[in-house]
From TrEMBL:
Keywords: Hydrolase. Belongs to the transglycosylase family. Rpf subfamily. This is Resuscitation-promoting factor RpfB. PROSITE patterns: LYSM. The keyword Hydrolase applies. It comes from the Bacteria. One of its GO terms (molecular function) is hydrolase activity. CDD domains: LysM, RPF. Its EC number is 3.-.-.-. The keyword Acetylation does not apply.
Amino acid sequence: MPKPPRSSRAGAARGGAPALTARAALLGPVLAGALVLVQAPQPEAATGRGLVAATPADCPGDWPWGCVALCESGGRWDADTGNGFHGGLQFEPSTWEEYGGLAYAPRAGLATRDQQIAVARDVLRRQGWSAWPTCSRRYGLAGRHHTVEPGDSLSAVARRFGVEGGWQALYEANRDAVGADPDLILPGRLLLLP
């Protein structure tokens, strides 16, 4: 039996042929062990059709950055497509420089995924998700956020960003993400800055 054709997710994101996958789904009787090929549903980020409610399981890598990179560059962290933007999160050279990216590499596409995310977290703190207007809207991301760092507390974050209502307002805005104990916030968690 021939193997199904292979295509990369990045190829599909650039307008190539949609990926085909073999599914072990029984859509009625299986005839002589036939392999059923179906067109896999493409992520909305790759196809550009409408809004999606994405979760960490929907995107490769670190949520939400894996989803944003999938939308911005087809998930290619080394992207340099000639459009003036570079890397997985498609930084303009001036933004990369302004937010400290030159400490890692001369342009974003030469930096690692983690280095690009470190710069993006600083951009997110200052500009909010509007720095990635189309892709953030696609995944329902809005507002300014802070990524919890080791040693952070809700009260320290509230003071640092001048949150009106202090740590209590910050906790209420992030109760689902933080959980029942406001004294326990985990590094890497995104906090909405109200």
